[in-house]
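Project standup — Tuesday

K.O.: blocked on the structure for the chain from last sprint. Re-posting the sequence here as requested.
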Amino acid sequence: MKVGYQGEKGSYSEAAIYKHYGKNVEAIGLETFDDVFEAVKNNKIDQGFLPFENTIAGSVVENYDLLLKEDVFVIAEVFLKIIHNLLSHKGNKFENIKKAYSHSHALHQCHGFLREHNIKSVPEYDTAGAVKIVKKMGKMDEAAIASELCADIYGLDILEKGIGTNNHNTTKFFVIVKKENVPKDLKKEKTSIVFKVKHHPGALVSCLQRLSKNDINMTKLESRPIPENPWDYVFFVDFESGLDEENVKLTLSEMEAASIFVKVLGSYPKGDKTCK
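H.V.: unblocked you, prediction finished:
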């Protein structure tokens, strides 16, 4: 099976793929999030594996916008604990390090460690990409912040493990497929939707009340602007209940009647938030 992700080999997305599927899949790194969606739609990969939310950085809004626009379906959520490590050349020593390269989010999540040890942050486009740069330059005063998988792939030493400021740093990934490729035996325990309300007082409350009225537990609510319509918004919702349950069918029918549109983004098993 071919599973596509955004980034270089050794990225946290690739690590999450192996955690979810094991090593018996072909993980294919693509340049952009857009590229992953396109590869799914054009059958170049079987599944797309993308980050959607981090407990520190928040939502990956670009992917939510793509999920609204594209005709795909979410079949799984996967949680990965993010453990940032300081990587450098074989035989190097921690006291030599003066600069650390990584994605801006990773640098921010390790700012306490970097400040304490007077290490300069150098932002790059990708955590694994930063490792490739450090490896290529070969300077003993430089390091990268990345995954343990990166150290294995690029042949670097881990000088310091777990340097993040927050020990609860976790990213949620969604697995996406073409709608015609949704597994027939898919276990549906959670559902994700997006909707747009009509412009009158209480419109949003009216839609959300349909969930509680039908005994459905909402676990996420987030608004996103519509770029083509300034100051116009859609609302993304996750809730606990599968698409095939009667109370969900009733709720979606009622929400469709009370809103401008409702789009079902996916229905899937509950992921393990403990990251075991």
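K.O.: great, moving the ticket to review. The radius of gyration is 21 Å. The first helix runs from residue 12 to 21.
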